[in-house]
Structure prediction request, 261 residues.
Amino acid sequence: MNHDPEYRRLFGELFPEVAGGKPIDFTMFGLAIAEFELTLTFANAPIDRFARGQRDAMTDSEKRGALLFFGRARCVTCHAVAGDANEMFTDVKNRVVGVPQVAPYFGVGTGNMIFDGPGQDEDFGLEQVTGNRADRYKFRTAPLRNLAVAPAFFHNGAFTRLEDAIRHHLDVDESARHYNPVAAGVALDLTHRLGPIEPVLGRLDRKLRNPIELNRTEFSDLVAFVRDGLLDERARREHLCKLVPRSVPSGSPVLQFQGCP
Prediction:
C-alpha cells in the first residue's frame, strides 16, 4: 500500500505525517476503519427526532407502542436507554431468555460445527467463555435500533419475523414449548434438529417468567414502535449499498454483498 500513490495521497489527506513522507502504518489503518464504523451508527430514528422536539416524527401507533415499551410491557427493563446502555436499547447484560435450541443437521460424520450437550444440539452461550455453569444459556441483550432491516432475531436466528420475536418475550413458556422452526421461517438445515428446551426454561431470567398480556391493538402498536419508531432510514439496504465502492486504488476486486445490485 505504501507503494501505491493513490493510497498515499488519500492517507496523506488525513494524516499529515504521511503527507510529509512517513509510511502508512497499522495504527493509521485502525483509525481510518474506526472512523468509518462510526459513520454507520445510525441513530436518527423517529424516537430520536421526537425526543428533540419534533412531535410529528412518530405516528400515533408508534407513540402508543413506546408507552407500552417503557411501561406495562416492561421491555425497557432489559432493553435499556440509560447509563451504560447509551441509548442503544440494551443493558449489555447476559440473560437467559428461553430461545429455542436450533442446531443444523449435517448428516453423520459431516460438518465442522460442534454444539454443546450430550446430543450436540445445544448452545451453552456465555458458559463457553467463562466456564461457569451458572452462565449456561446466557446471551447478551441485543440492542434494538434498526431491527426493521434484520433478517433474523436472537443469537441463533430462531425467529425470522419481528412479530414472533416480540411474542416470544411476552410469553416465553408458550413460545418456546410450541416452537416450530418451519413456521418460524428459519433456514432448511435448522428445521430438522432441536435441542432440549426444558433445561433452558429452567434457567429463565426472572424478568421473563410472568407472561405479559396485550390485546391485538396493543401488540400491533408495540411492533410498530420497535420496527419503525427505532429505524433510521439510512440503515436500509438502498443506502448501505451506495457505500460499496465501484473500485479501489489497488485495483483489487471489490467484494460483492448479498442484496446489493
In short: The chain has eleven helices and two strands.
